[in-house]
Amino acid sequence: YNTYQAGTSRYYGDRAAIMVSYQLPFVIFFSGRNNFLQWVSRWKYNRFVTFHKWLGRIVFIEILIHGCAMASQTYAIQRWSRFTDSWYRDGITGAVCLAIIVILSVPYVRRYSYELFLVIHFCLAVILIASAWRHSQESANQDFYWACAAIWSFERALRIARIVLHGGIKNAEIELFPR
């Protein structure tokens, strides 16, 4: 690279992106309620959710580093045509989705509107994985996003199988007994 800023930004940005690619499958893996490691390790679901939350926060910080470094490199080499490229827009889309996921994951939102949180979390995670996959088509990290989709699909299939094996969806009548 012609300038120190362009080279350093590229190196830090690429390393942050590689770390995100390695860690995102683990974020998906620790999110599932039907995780087979819970059966093997006998750990409670809360421990897995704690791993999911903290890995998600770390991935968010790495995405911020990647985005800022790549914006710095774009400025240093003055290649403004990147903003019109689809891979650049896909990266921005994924970063914005992850930012919204992190912002809406505060305990207040989860506690008072869990169903809304869950639907938005699910939809934004799908968009995040799809846009990250399209963003990384030129690199060798694309397989990690296929792994995310495979882990998530397997977890959903296990969840549906457990519902069917345990009698399907049942309607329960709940009654509040005063003390």
Structural class, from secondary structure content?
Answer: mainly alpha
Helical content stands at over 70%
Quaternary structure of the protein: single chain
End-to-end CA span: 73 Å
SS field, number of helical segments: 7
H and E order: HHHHHHH
- How many strands in all? 0
Low-confidence stretches: none
Radius of gyration: 20 Å
Element layout with pairings:
Layout: H1 4-29, H2 36-41, H3 45-77, H4 86-103, H5 107-112, H6 114-135, H7 142-165
Helix pairs in contact: 1-3, 1-7, 3-4, 4-6, 6-7
Structure, described:
The chain has 179 residues and is mostly helical. The chain is built from seven helices and no strands. It has helices spanning 4-29, 36-41, 45-77, 86-103, 107-112, 114-135, 142-165. Helix 1 runs parallel beside helix 7 and helix 4 (86-103) packs antiparallel against helix 6. The radius of gyration is 20 Å and the shape is elongated. The model has no long low-confidence stretch (mean pLDDT 89).
